[in-house]
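Standup notes
- DV: blocked on the single-chain target, sequence here:
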Amino acid sequence: TGIGKCVAMDLARRNARTILACRSRERGQAAVEEIRAATGNPEVVLRLLDTASLASVRAFASAVLREESRLDVLVNNAGVTGLPFAITSEGLEQTFATNYLGPFLLTNLLLG
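- DV (later): unblocked, structure below
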């Protein structure tokens, strides 16, 4: 939703292979279908990613490196605010993990 969906829409309009990295399979697939329909670009795909989980970040990065021949642009757009204090299963504060640690790890794992 929001800025991330607008960026994905613009990239798809430019005929870019566009990977939507989403926590929710249902919401992500709905966005994929909407973007494909609006742009005519069949190369819009969904991959599940929860940046609050470093295990999820590692699995996502591993799959991208294994399945994609190249990665030209990475847009780290995920973020949360206003959540009650919570600790992830990995012992990290949820907001900090989601907004900073996850995207930082993802970027570093995807660098050539």
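- Follow-up: Residues 94-110 form the longest helix (17 residues).
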